[in-house]
Model the fold of this input.
Amino acid sequence: MMEPFDPRSIINASMMKEFAAQTISIMVSVDSVAGSTLLATSTDNQKLRINLSTALDAAAGDWVEVIGVPHGADTIRAKEVIQFGGENIDFDTDGYNGAAQMLNNVKSFYRSG
Done:
């Protein structure tokens, strides 16, 4: 039986300070991977440093979802990284940013059903 996901908020990098010490999910484009450090660019064009819990084999330009805990404005301690098919994905960053804003501005609607 699969374990359920930890509750998390879908965010972009501009929201990281609001979610310090909470579990988040964020989409990023890989800039580089060196050992246990992933350097990436968020959907709102901010540079991030992600401390990985396991090795990651991703190329520059690949899109990945990072589930983890933010520390400060530009660092995340990753719990899990999910890869999405390589650099040829035409990811809709504006749509993602809009969805992240909406989901975090109408939380009471989703919690009450």
